[in-house]
Predict the 3D structure of the following.
Amino acid sequence: MSFDEEWSQARGQAVATRLNSVPADPGGGGGSSDYKVTSAELKAVGNEAQELFHWFERDAFHAGAQTNAASKSLDGDGFLTGSAMWTMWDTWRGQAETLLSACAHIHNHLEDTVISHTNHEEVLVTNFSISTIDKHFN
């Protein structure tokens, strides 16, 4: 059996396998397994997350020093707005840090997924090549 034939057979078996090990068409709403994502698509999403991270990191916190000074000034003048302004800034900062963390997590996870997939593909190609070579020696 040639590499292309083995590869085609392996892909055919993989298409019929679902992540939860349920057959592709169990006859009860399982649907077909036509979900496909390429490494290029994963990499593009990861790059978008990284771009958002850098853009947001640059722009999300520039008002922090001014907000702090304004809230202290308002507090010093006896306005309750000062503490409310500080609370708003503190809430914003916490939410912004959460978004930055999520963007970094998405980018890193997808980058690792692409690398793992590439490494797995190399192992598969090597294994199929070895099985072809072994066939000629056995």
